[in-house]
Amino acid sequence: MSQLNGNRFTSSLVHCGTRIDYEYTPPLEDHRATAVFLPGLFTGGGLWQAQQRQALRLGYGALVICDPFVTLDLGRQPMACFRDCLEWLAYRHGIHAAVLCGSSVGALMAIEYGALGRRKFHVVVSDMADADSPLEGGFRGQPLPDAHQVERVLRRQLFNQAAVTAERVERIQQCLTSSHHRQWVRYVSAMRRHPVHSQLQRLMGRLSLVVGEHDESLSVARWASMLRDNIDAGQVNWTPVPRAARAPMIENPDEVDLVLTSALCRAGRSAMRGRVPPTWIGADDPHQVMETAAGAHRA
Question: Which helix (H) or strand (E) holds 297?
Fold first, then answer.
């Protein structure tokens, strides 16, 4: 039965000197899992908007990080800093069962957090980060791209051309500015040196990959090889999505909805078998990651 959860609120936290805005809707029942929607390098967690609606419709929780990574200045170690933010959010809201959903940098971040080994969160990823793709790689040696260049890149990367909207092009182009260039360089550098091989070996929960059938990027072949070498085959669910390429969650959302719903159901059952009260497991004092006093309000 479909249900809508009216308890959504927006809030923010401050870490590494940067404010991170998020939306949170608790699950309708305590035993249900929460879907955590991570941003990409140039897109906020709203990239997963269709999947967020589906999760809420079915009574699951949803936590959305609102802003693209490139707008978050998290210092010289942005991945580690953001990992601490996720840990604080899980602790703050008592999330004991979750599915982390990520694309691009968000995919790496979901796997990194899932590999901590202390919370058995499941992971759904798409468009695995490729530091050498035109957008993520930063148009090396070229001026900052204008809207026409961004649109051309998107049309090459997406099979469903209807997903290339003027609004999407504008949002990405607004991130590709000189004011965000330092973060852009840092994230691309972090993507290149990210120890994803060892993190896959430590991943506790299941990993579901949704890959567009028309995604011809080299990252797909590289990830297939990494998975074969670093993780048990029974722990991975690889789902080809028809009529999609680099962004199946927006090109063919119904297919990705099915993968997420299955993962949420599995995560809830898994957590109930070995549930423990939420505790702080971060390396730093939890008060170093602070929710802003005036940030929380009902949406």
Answer: strand 297-298
